[in-house]
Structures are given as structure tokens and as C-alpha cells.
Write the C-alpha cells for this entry.
Amino acid sequence: QVQLAESGGGLVRAGGSLRLSCAAAGFTFSTYIMGWFRQTPGKPRELVASISPDGTTNYADFVKGRFTISNDNAKNTLYLQMNSLNPEDTAVYYCAANLRYWGQGTQVIVSS
């Protein structure tokens, strides 16, 4: 059974940091393109960052230089290090595998 479980969200002040984790199970994690997406009410889900099996990373312009995506294939876990957070980063963050499997999301709230 495929499972993606995000954790690490919470409330943080502007300028602060959070590290999101996504624990994966039920598929060959190292062969999938993994991504972090986010969504706010009334808006479509948007890509934050992705990482390919060869380690190539891709970032949305609005997080470049602030967020870092990484993975640990030995632990089947995807990470998103978020620094210099601002209130516009407030959203539910989801991890996804090949856009096929999705987690339930973790809420991030950044206060001003």
C-alpha cells in the first residue's frame, strides 16, 4: 500500500524556518520524481520544488534561494528545508510521487 506522510508543519514567525518531511512507503522511492506542492484556499495547488531520481532539483521562482529540497533514499524520506519564511508561504504543503501519489498535507502558517 502506497503511503506518503508529511510532517513538520506548524506556526512560525516571519523570517523563521521549518523543515518538512515526507515519509514514503509502498513504492520504489528512489525511482520516482518527488515533489513538494502547496495550496491555499481558493487557489490551485502549485509546485514548490521537485527532485528527480538523478538528484536534479527544480524550484519555483518564489522559493529560490530560500527553500531546499532533498531526499534520503535509505530512509525513503523527502525533505523541504524552508528558510526566510514570509506570510505568503502560509499554505498546506503536500508531497507527491510522480504526480501519481499524494500525501494528506501538512499546514504551515507564517505569522507577520
